[in-house]
Amino acid sequence: MPKSLLLAAALLCSICFTAQAQHSSLFASYDCREHAEFFYSAPVEEVIVTDADVTVSLEVEEAVEAIDTLNGWKHWQYVENFHFGKDRGAMPMITDLNALHPYFRDRIKTLIETCEAKGITLAVVESYRTHAKQNEYKVMGKKYTNSGAGKSKHQYGLAVDVVPVVNGVAVWDNKALWKSVGVEGEKLGLRWGGRWRKPYDPGHFEWTGGLTSSHLAVGVLPPVPRVEDLYPCMAQDVRVLRRYWKEWETAQSAVTRK
Ligand SMILES: [Zn+2]
Questions:
Q1: Distance (Å) from CA 132 to ligand 1 centroid
Q2: What was the pLDDT predicted at 3?
Q3: Are residues 143 and 201 in the same domain?
Q4: pTM exceeds 0.90, yes or no
Q5: What is the average pLDDT value for the chain, to the nearest integer?
Q6: Which interval of the chain is the signal sequence (predicted)?
């Protein structure tokens, strides 16, 4: 084949691939797009033109591997104790919504947006929580939690703690304000800790799709509505998330042992 024809074929192939990439990122879920951006900014298609021939190489496998070795967990936002005016133990709290299960994360984003529209600003106090951090709360007493490591939905990225912020200050003791937030969360199908008594935990929201902590502990994933349409990258996202969670666990467990 003449060199010009080969080059044309190579370019066409490259265009096809780019078009496919855009299509996939357009319809993907939030998290999928995020990974897709990385994925497609990696050298997915590479056209090398030499005097002798035209080589097209698609380094797809390599790019997939690159996602799995990302150190995204290191960039998660976290806060130190007393950041929100309360004693929450010595270990930092992860506040990043990216640390949450993709479906639950989207529910929480909606909750934050809905509350904002009602004039209530919410801050994220804690999203994913390591086993080590959960144990710290357990030792701190019943005021904090009844659940030991692995028993809280926070260990599966399926729970979050928020607090309303007024004039830059976290407001922990306004029951009416909590109620307004709790009602919005319940409308989104979330379980609200403001309904609990021991402990009353109005900043806590969780969702498990009907699963219990025992299901979650053995790795069962909650059933997500229309998962294939709305979250085509769910399996991959959860795989990456679990890897990140494990890294955080290793880091915080190391602190505990000191
Ligand atoms: Zn909580």
A1: 15
A2: 53
A3: yes
A4: no
A5: 80
A6: 1-21
